[in-house]
From TrEMBL:
<dbReference type="InterPro" id="IPR036291">
    <property type="entry name" value="NAD(P)-bd_dom_sf"/>
</dbReference>
<dbReference type="InterPro" id="IPR001509">
    <property type="entry name" value="Epimerase_deHydtase"/>
</dbReference>
<dbReference type="Pfam" id="PF01370">
    <property type="entry name" value="Epimerase"/>
</dbReference>
<protein>
    <submittedName>
        <fullName>NAD-dependent epimerase</fullName>
    </submittedName>
</protein>
<feature type="domain" description="NAD-dependent epimerase/dehydratase">
    <location>
        <begin position="4"/>
        <end position="212"/>
    </location>
</feature>
Length: 306
């Protein structure tokens, strides 16, 4: 049995598809209101902030994937993410279940220095501190031998379907709608973006690779990093039209955050858009050379075609 904790999002749904295609048909989906991705999926309704419910959800699982997401709300993150991580670690320790944690990069410093699996945490705001806290909780449990686990860490998403990210909402969704895209802070800075189906395929591969455990892995991206200017030019080539864009400077977000809560929640992340963002996934590429990463051009083509 392989169990997805936090089922229902685009990462989790594609993870379930990949597990079903290539690894196992014995899959359990856990969320507050889970729904089947495949006919054979087992559904368990559970609140991961409830320790007993989490234990019941994990029981009988060989591997559990923690992919839960929360709305971009600092207070909610501070209240729920640590409780979820604590309960999942305890449940996996209780039942002898391996744990695969899908993580992000919010705890990394927002500098142009390349980010590797050994980059020290230096969060620049509340959400980054929460992500650093829960990653540290798991790393300490791994070092103590309480759980056999791994961390799969991803940079910002871009992708098809229901993918949620600033790159999708500000750039590609607007292009698809025939609107002028918005670029946060700087159009020339290099971006490290992960194609969401690649993230899910890589997570399933790591979870089913015994020697991947006990480590942190940067999930695979196209190493030919593009700026928003380049990505928008590619979108123009794909659509056959010239696409202009508007850069939204830090000042605009600084003014808007006083009145619009989503802009306030986004503000701590904007430093990541000011300079090159170099997320290094060469460790994964060296261990899994057969893994085919989606190129940025292919990704743009698939988004705009879909």
């Amino acid at each position: 049995m392989q169990t997805v904790l936090g089922a229902g999002g685009p990462i989790a749904d594609e993870l379930v598809n990949e597990l079903h295609r290539n690894h196992t048909k014995d899959i359990r989906l856990v969320s507050r209101k889970p729904s089947k991705v495949n006919d054979t999926d087992e559904l368990v309704a559970a609140d991961l902030t409830d320790a007993e419910a989490t234990s019941r959800a994990v029981a009988g699982s060989d591997i559990a994937y923690l992919t839960v997401g929360l709305p971009l709300d600092s207070e909610l993150w501070e209240r729920q993410f640590p409780a979820m991580m604590r309960n999942v670690i305890d449940a996996c320790a209780e039942h002898g279940t391996k744990l695969v944690f899908f993580d992000n990069t919010y705890m990394y410093p927002g500098t142009p220095t390349p980010q590797t699996e050994s980059t020290a945490f230096a969060p620049g705001g509340r959400k980054g501190r929460v992500r650093g806290q829960i990653a540290t909780m798991l790393l300490e449990a791994m070092r103590a031998g309480r759980v056999e686990a791994l961390i799969g860490r991803a940079p910002e998403f871009y992708g098809p379907g229901r993918t949620k990210s600033y790159t999708n909402s500000l750039v590609f969704d607007r292009i698809k709608a025939g609107k002028r895209p918005f670029v946060p802070v700087d159009a020339q800075a290099k971006r490290s973006l992960i194609w969401t189906p690649d993230a899910s395929r890589a997570l399933a591969l790591l979870g089913n690779t015994p020697d991947a455990y006990g480590q942190t892995w940067h999930l695979p991206i196209d190493p030919d990093r593009q700026s928003y200017d380049q990505l928008i030019k590619t979108a123009g080539e794909v659509t056959g039209r010239k696409i202009g864009y508007t850069v939204l400077p830090m000042l605009a977000f600084g003014l808007g955050r006083r009145f619009v809560k989503p802009l306030d929640e986004m503000y701590e992340l904007l430093v990541r858009y000011r300079d090159d963002n170099i997320f290094d996934s060469s460790k994964f590429a060296a261990r899994f050379p057969e893994f085919q990463v989606t190129s940025y051009r292919e990704g743009v083509e698939r988004i705009l075609a879909g």
